[in-house]
Specification:
There is one protein chain. This protein is mainly beta. 0% of the residues lie in helices and 52% in strands. Strands 2, 4, 5, 6, 9, 10 and 11 form a seven-stranded mixed sheet that branches. A four-stranded antiparallel sheet has the order 1-3-8-7, with no helix packed on it. A hairpin with an 8-residue loop joins β5 and β6. The model has no long low-confidence stretch (mean pLDDT 97).
Amino acid sequence: VRVMDSGGGLVQSGGSLRLSCTASGFTFSGYRVRWYRQAPGKEERELVAQITNGGANGVADYIGSAKGRFTISKGSAENIMHLQMNDLTAEDTGVYYCNTWGYITNYDSWGQGTQVTVSS
């Protein structure tokens, strides 16, 4: 049970990126999905967005400056989730990690991280 992050890159301020979290060996139904950012020079990872269930009836929540700019969505397959990030600023720069936790399985998985760099 693992997840893989992808989709990061270098973008100019005001631009957009779509991150992906791909599950291997399971689907996101019954799993909470969270996105964290680790800013340069900081040890802690801060929560930026989550959805309570990657399957049906999930409720999305966005933290701080992510509100109104970031959107979590399902991918083309049940093992893919996306984080659409719009109107990016330099403060959004960091390594983004997908984290999933299964309500029944209790599996807790982290992606390897994907680098997002926003140039001003």
